[in-house]
């Protein structure tokens, strides 16, 4: 073997944390690591390996961003959780800093300077690379004032475009106007470095609740609105044929609605939107998990039932005071449940029916995907939001997103830069 071959054989077996360091050794190694051949070989070699990820709480005024972290995986080789890399430096003093969205390893931040100047930043926390997104030039002074006083920045979305496992583009989305059957977006694209406005229609009359976060997946944003039996979605890269927001009804809307135990939310797993809930009938409790397979208003065509598991045999173990948190982002067999009685996170494998309990006041422990599980004020956050989940308490209140997932990518993609102006 010559030296480049030896370097390839050695480097491709290392975790990404080490590869990122060795990329700076010399130009030859940098060129090798940056090659499509090396990247494709590494991703293929680690396609079934676990990667580091976090459960993110969606009310950033309180506590901390990351409440549960997963580290020590083979792909990245991190000795601490992904949330610990969320350090940030700006060119001027700030009095407010909020994480608005996380997707495909990138993060969207809102910062407010001491002189009340609003600022948006997109960055890669692992590489500590940040780009300040210019404010839309068409914002009036009144818009800027509302941005600060009414916190309209919390209606912000963030989507990416992926090619061969690398982020090649991103878009920052502001919800400018909403109500009735119309929604107005302001969209910043890293491809052009400019803002555009876009007005789209919704097939049903709705009210866009302020401060409702979105979930990004495959260039699409997914929101809750006043339509409690459904949610809205819009494709910011592919575009919809009729340029409409899609309205997707939940699979349990209708006759099963009165049987559900928890208020509605959704998450992502294995590249799809996933919805789950528990249902009680004749003293039997069943957990059902669906995957969204088609963006249509017909629940029968939109959803595929993945799991239907009886919880009767687990009542003694789980008790009755628990609620669902998220699905594992890379394994749709594993669901995360918070158990109020035991004050811990329960990992439940829906195929094997295996359960494991992890508590915040215990030492970090390995979980079902072989990552090390760590907590950061998780119990406190769960105590604050637990009342929302139980439908009997929540009544007809709006659906909410209270958790999200920050998942590190499978490769060292850099932050896309807009063209110079």
Automatic annotation (TrEMBL):
Pfam families documented for this protein: b-prop_At3g26010-like, F-box
Instruction: Please state what the protein is called.
Output: F-box protein At3g23950
The UniProt record lists the F-box domain at: 3-41
For this protein, the record's Gene3D superfamilies field holds:
1.20.1280.50
């Amino acid at each position: 073997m010559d030296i480049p071959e030896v370097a390839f054989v050695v480097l491709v077996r290392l975790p990404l944390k080490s590869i990122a360091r060795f990329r700076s050794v010399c130009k030859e190694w940098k060129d090798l690591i940056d090659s499509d051949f090396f990247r494709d070989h590494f991703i293929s070699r680690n396609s079934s390996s676990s990667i580091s990820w976090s459960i993110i709480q969606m009310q950033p005024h309180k506590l901390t961003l990351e409440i549960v972290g997963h580290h020590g995986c083979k792909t990245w080789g991190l000795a601490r959780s992904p949330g610990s890399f969320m350090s940030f430096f700006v060119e001027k003093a700030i009095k407010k800093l909020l994480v608005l969205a996380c997707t495909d390893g990138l993060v969207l931040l809102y910062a407010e300077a001491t002189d009340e100047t609003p600022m948006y930043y997109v960055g890669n926390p692992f590489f500590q690379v940040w780009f300040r997104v210019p404010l839309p030039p068409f914002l009036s002074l009144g818009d800027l004032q509302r941005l600060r006083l009414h916190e309209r920045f919390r209606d912000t979305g963030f989507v990416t475009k992926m090619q061969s496992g690398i982020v090649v583009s991103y878009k920052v989305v502001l919800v400018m106007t909403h109500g009735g059957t119309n929604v107005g977006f302001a969209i910043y694209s890293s491809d052009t470095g400019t803002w555009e406005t876009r007005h789209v229609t919704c097939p049903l009359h709705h009210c866009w609740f302020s401060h409702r976060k979105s979930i990004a997946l495959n260039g699409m944003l997914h929101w809750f609105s006043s339509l409690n039996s459904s949610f809205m979605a819009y494709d910011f890269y592919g575009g919809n044929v009729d340029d409409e927001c899609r309205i997707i009804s939940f699979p349990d809307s209708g006759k099963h609605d009165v049987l559900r135990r928890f208020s509605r939310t959704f998450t992502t797993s294995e590249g799809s939107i996933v919805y789950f809930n528990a249902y009680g009938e004749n003293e039997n409790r069943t957990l059902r998990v669906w995957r969204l397979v088609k963006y249509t208003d017909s629940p029968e065509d939109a959803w595929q039932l993945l799991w239907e598991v009886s919880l009767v045999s687990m009542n003694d173990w789980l008790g009755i005071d628990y609620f669902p948190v998220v699905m594992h982002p890379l394994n749709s067999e594993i669901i995360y449940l918070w158990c109020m009685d035991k004050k811990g996170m329960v990992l439940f494998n829906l195929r094997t029916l295996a359960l494991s309990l992890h508590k915040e006041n215990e030492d970090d422990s390995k979980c079902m995907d072989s990552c090390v599980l760590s907590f950061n004020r998780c119990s406190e956050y769960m105590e604050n939001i637990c009342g929302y989940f139980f439908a009997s308490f929540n009544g007809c209140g709006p659906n909410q997103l209270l958790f999200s997932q920050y998942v590190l990518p499978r490769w060292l993609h850099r932050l896309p830069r807009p063209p110079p102006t």
